[in-house]
């Protein structure tokens, strides 16, 4: 009888807690890592896999995706989880809310969330979980049950929805968000969300450290005014115009407001999402010094690290917050290398060509927001490692370990004994040019079109089973819902 199900040989294992890769074999049993040791006897395993000297990273824990935002949820789960596997992402955490887009329903999460889980089950090629956005007073009352019954321990506020829609100005907040008449989604509501989450933390002390609130930090009033100015200026309606219409100081102000509210409500676990600019990072760092008792986490996306308003492939790069000028990209890298960014996510939101672009097609204000990127997250970081002096250990931290720890995925994020055997093999010597047609996402374009990425994910393992190799997914979808906190 075999001791192990699989031994991966000839891998250079990257660990979040070790400076240099380790030349050890990886033994896997019942979906878990059972042993890390050089020279393991392959006769002890049912199967072996030769990594060929490639880097073995912990499977990426992508803390920011949007399954089902533009396509039917079940369809999106199936196709976009393939893109995850292609990029070495083995756990995807996707944002979900009521209102237009997503499920296109208003009402109780206790009614809608089971539908989300039903449409996801059996369709995902990677493990998955969801964050939820409390939009109404009724949602606030549901938070304890969402945590205890469904294992949802992470929540989100979209700060700019106060008087702004997903793609631009919104004439009716209540219609867009499908919230009851007489309710407002505004700063007062954000305060009450924080108080409700902190109340749940106090009542659940044993898991309080895993319960957190994420914020999309932009200021609706500033964006509304600047959008009007940009549209009336007569300038081309390109990615630079979109950047100007949602200026970086809008992020900085929203971060400041959110941080003070966290202080006021005594909610310590705050995640500041997809920071895009020097001003956003500067505000976030200043707030952590002003309120040291708030346990901030800072996120950037692979899109904002690789693309800018000039090198992106057309207005397909429209995203919220916007892509920025190159000087902001370099500022993000500087802060990341200084240890002031906690994780890198994809913000993957598949929006197919016929829905993405409006009329005229060159008008950025007519286009939908968001694009895919999970396929390029890990390879993009590894590809930049030499030029940026970014260590493999740091990549393991910001692509997997830190995210898993924050969101209560205690079985994810590390190549270590007892953890899920989620592994991405990366060839750091490979180089390829991005072509949308080669992505397993159903999105037909990418703002990364033509980018050269100097690393490549060749194989992905989920709980010890190879789910991606030879350029395609392998087998049937076996992704499992992660009720958090996990063991």
In CATH, the homologous superfamily of the largest domain goes by the name Metal-dependent hydrolases
Low-confidence stretches: none
Average pLDDT metric: 96
Q: Overall 3D geometry? A: globular
Question: Percent range for helical residues?
Answer: 25-40%
β-strand percent reads 15-25%
- Gyration radius, to the nearest Å? 22 Å
Class by SSE composition? alpha/beta
**Assigned CATH architecture of the largest domain:** Alpha-Beta Barrel
| Total number of helices | 14
Number of domains: 2
Q: CATH class of the largest domain, please?
A: Alpha Beta
Q: How many extended strands?
A: 19
| N/C terminus separation | 28 Å
Look up the CATH topology of the largest domain. Answer: TIM Barrel
Largest sheet: 9 strands, mixed
């Amino acid at each position: 009888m075999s001791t192990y199900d699989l031994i991966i040989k000839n891998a250079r294992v990257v660990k979040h807690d070790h400076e240099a890769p380790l030349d050890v074999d990886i033994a896997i049993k019942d979906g878990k890592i059972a042993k890390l040791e050089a020279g393991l006897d392959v006769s002890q395993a049912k199967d072996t896999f030769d990594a060929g000297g490639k880097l073995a990273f912990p499977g990426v824990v992508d803390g920011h995706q949007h399954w089902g935002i533009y396509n039917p949820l079940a369809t999106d789960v199936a196709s976009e989880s393939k893109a995850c596997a292609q990029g070495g992402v083995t756990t995807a955490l996707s944002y979900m809310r009521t209102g237009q887009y997503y499920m296109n329903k208003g009402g109780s999460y206790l009614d809608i969330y089971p539908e989300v889980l039903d449409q996801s089950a059996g369709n995902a090629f990677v493990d998955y979980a969801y964050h939820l956005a409390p939009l109404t007073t009724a949602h606030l009352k549901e938070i304890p049950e969402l945590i205890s019954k469904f294992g949802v321990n992470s929540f989100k506020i979209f700060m700019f929805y106060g008087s702004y829609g997903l793609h631009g100005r919104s004439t009716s907040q209540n219609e867009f968000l499908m919230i009851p008449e007489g309710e407002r989604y505004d700063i007062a509501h954000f305060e009450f969300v924080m108080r409700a989450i902190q109340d749940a933390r106090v009542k659940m002390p044993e898991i309080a450290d895993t319960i957190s609130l994420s914020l999309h930090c932009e200021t609706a009033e500033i964006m509304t005014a600047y959008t009007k100015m940009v549209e009336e200026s007569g300038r081309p309606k390109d990615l630079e115009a979109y950047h100007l219409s949602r200026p970086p100081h809008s992020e900085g102000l929203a971060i400041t407001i959110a941080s003070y509210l966290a202080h006021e409500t005594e909610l310590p676990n705050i995640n500041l999402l997809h920071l895009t600019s020097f001003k956003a990072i500067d505000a976030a760092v200043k707030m952590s010094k002003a309120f040291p008792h708030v346990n901030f986490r800072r996120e950037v996306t692979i899109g904002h690290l690789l693309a800018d308003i000039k090198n992106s492939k057309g207005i397909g790069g429209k995203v919220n917050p916007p892509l920025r000028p190159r000087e902001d990209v370099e500022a993000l890298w500087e802060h990341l290398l200084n240890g002031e960014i906690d994780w890198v996510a994809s913000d993957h939101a598949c929006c197919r060509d016929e829905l993405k672009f409006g009329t005229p097609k060159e008008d950025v204000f007519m286009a939908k927001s968001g694009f895919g990127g999970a396929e390029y997250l890990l390879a993009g970081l590894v590809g930049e490692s030499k030029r940026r002096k970014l260590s493999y250990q740091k990549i393991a931290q910001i692509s997997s370990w830190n995210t898993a720890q924050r969101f209560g995925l205690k079985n994810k994020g590390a190549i270590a004994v007892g953890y899920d055997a989620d592994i991405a093999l990366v060839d750091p010597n490979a180089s390829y040019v991005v072509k949308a047609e080669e992505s397993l996402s159903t999105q037909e374009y990418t703002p990364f079109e033509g980018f050269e990425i100097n690393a490549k994910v060749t194989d992905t393992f989920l709980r010890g089973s190879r789910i991606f190799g030879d350029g395609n997914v392998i087998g049937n979808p076996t992704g499992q819902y992660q009720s958090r906190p996990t063991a």
